[in-house]
Amino acid sequence: MNSSREKLRQRWNLEEMAPTLIWWVTVVLLTFVVVYPSLVLIWNSFQTADGIGLGNYLAVFQDPGILKSVKNTLVVVIPSTILSTALGVFLAWAVVRTDVPGKRHWKTLLAIPYLIPPFIGAVAWTFILGPVGFFNEWLMKLFGLTDAPINLYTLGGMVFVMTIYRYAVPYVVVLPAMKKIDSTIEEAARVSGANPWRTMMDVTLPLLTPSIMGATLLVFMFILADFGVSAVLGAPNQIRLMTTQIYYLINRPDLPNNLQLASAYSLLLALFGLAGLWAYNRVLRTNKYVVVAGKSTAAKPSPLGKGKWPLFTFLTLIFTVTTVAPIAATVVTALTKTFGLPFGPGNITLRNFARLLDLSNIKRAFGNSLFLSAVSGLLVTVIALAVAYVAIKGGIRRFHGVRLMQVMVTLPYAVPGTIIALAMILAFAQPLPVVGVKLYGTIWILLIAYVARFMNLGYNNISGAISQIDRSLEEASRVSGASHLRTFQKIMLPLLMPSLYSSFFLVVAPTLSEITLSSLLWSVGNETIGTVVFSTQEEGKILLTAALAVILILIVVVLNYLVRHFSGDDVGI
Amino acid sequence: MKRQMKKAAALAAAALLALSVAGCSEKTDPASAAGSQSEEKKGTVVVYTSESQDLVTDMLEDFKAKTGYDYSLFRSGTGDVIAKLNAELQTGSTEANVLWFADIGYLYQLDEQGLIEHYTPAGADQIDSKFNYNDSMAFEVRQIFNIIAVNTLKNTVEIKDWYDLCDPALSGKFAMANPSYSGGAFTTLVAHVNNDQLGWQFYEDMKANDIKFEQSNGNLQTKISSGEYMAVSVVDFMIRNAQNEGAPVEIIWPESGAVMVPTPVAMLSNVPEENQAACRALMDYMLSEDGQKFFVEQGYIPVSENVGVPEGAPNVSDIKVMDMALDSFIQDSSAIREQFETIFTAN
Which residue in chain B is spatially nearest to A535 when comparing CA positions? Predict the structure, then answer.
């Protein structure tokens, strides 16, 4: 009855308005950082030698090279997506829902492959499985062979390396959701006589569908956009995936509009990423999944009984193959005095680390990269939280652009970094219209580029987590008179905290060693670790590259450990 | 509640830690402190290059110490540098003043658009006129040769000239940099296909012998040292430097000639007034005795004949050079790239 005054009061209530404000600030920021460069990229792809037109897109379908690379990409991406998701989810289940011995430590150890920079990881694998790699040489000695039995430089080799290297993505994404499942449901299954395996397959996994789908989508895009593994393993036999095919075009300045052509090719690549997004949305829309309801108790692990030692052995095997082997190969290389001579007492040195410190720009590079990765990790987490929350809960104000936003977030992630870097140059090389500030040539262009590129990681991860939380929890709070903001603060935030950290972690690790964006956008004083890695690797300084990688991996592991320690094990991988 | 705060605190702590490390290292950086103390000469030269980062930096530091001009450097792969430059030019202006990379064909393209300043450095009359491209459009400042390198522990084939690389014993064990990505490898390809003895047939035969490719010369150097390949076609200075560090590698100068890889230095025509003197000073320095001696110390063969050669390198007059077919490089670049693609990726 007194509704009009009441409504007016409500509308101007700061507590009630805050979400709307936050939402709009986020949207403006996202438009500036992600949407604007994406539009520049799209516009650029229509520019041909003779004006605006579809010429570049027509060229795509007439080029046998690109069609072959599409085929190669599908042959690599589909199996490695399926395999790495299966492995990642299984491992997450093993360390959270079972009583496997040492599960606390496994949790962290199994995430380490994610910390190894892609270029380094691929090179490390050539040290193990390449023609003169440790494992091949061992097999040759064992069976008296004259030729290396395993050929890593094939499509199969790429599937193998991408799988054992990228399972960590679905693992990190599914881990928080796995912890939040109401264990009474699992208990019910067990009481009814199901064994742990049946419980996992019939109860746990179906409950986790949104999270697993999100993880699959993410790792699909991850592998689709991969450049390190495909460049290193594809080079000897000229096997090109779409990313390396696009890179080939960028290297053709003799063609009149090679960059515009490359943009068109990139958008084709992005279409595959968008197809994945579409499939993901479809699955989520047709089913209703709610896992985290009010009375969630602490996750009680399924007792495995006799099964726990075989599982332990399996985890040890996985850890050895995916983590110990490549890191050992990297450490051995970093400690080698003369590359090419057998590693042994006479050929060990620490001078590669000392030399690294001698490189004039290296300290600045470390400082810059740490700063950039921490800030972009925070920004991505906060922005993704705001956008994903509105997109899924829709509780603030209906906004039809949410779907568009989702697409725009995908775009910078699904195309090669070089193309995004070019879009950034085109978008920001001139001073900004109103304020007159020029971002290009400063460290801020790198920050914008990183946030734009990795927003997708945070967005997909967090949206998966939010859609697992039952609406009733928030409604209960609202009914009891709490404002939106307060409800969010007291109910949603604590539940989401582990997923927020995993987003932060997902962004920090790749940005710390980011190469493809940085190598076009850095400027003096703003060098990053990635640009240094890229130079040393390209110049054949493999020993220095390995030493750099060892330091990088150590930094991330220590940072993560500190977070775990200070949060009492609640947050952190 | 408490737990939640703890978690938030942990997250903030992680971020703060990273930030503080970043902050510290920026403050303590000696290079930026030194920059402000240099002599009072105005002007900075902005160099875009694909040459080795630390070697170029060392050289520019020497330039700065000797002349007092400041520099700033962007270094990336040849393809990336050109892509960046192209994108910048598309927006109307570029940050670059001086260009230095292994794609002379692209320099000719820029020159046709009037973007290159024809400047003749002070020492230009002291060097062979073949190092002066297109009437002072660009200059060679040191010589890089594409040669054959072998792993002394693994190689079983006697290699004297390019065609020996088709020996069946080298099947799958010989590699070169991919001409699609490496300027040096593309120059070599152009020289080879224009050579009467070799031609495209040489590449057909190498393909039949299962030739492998690598993305960059650096990868070749790594893999020839490790013994993954018995022989590679690669730039000389990398192998010389690896050899001097004890790696089991050796250079073979092909009898019919090594290929000189042009890595010319050029100045852009739209350099802002305040940077022009610095640009000219840099080009002068590179051809000066100081600059030439510095290149020799870094393991490069100089263009000047008066400053000696690096350890383990032959005398400049003893090197047999294959004609690098500059005209063909400029005119047939696209056709040669396409032909290469057809042979090696068509199936």
Answer: B53
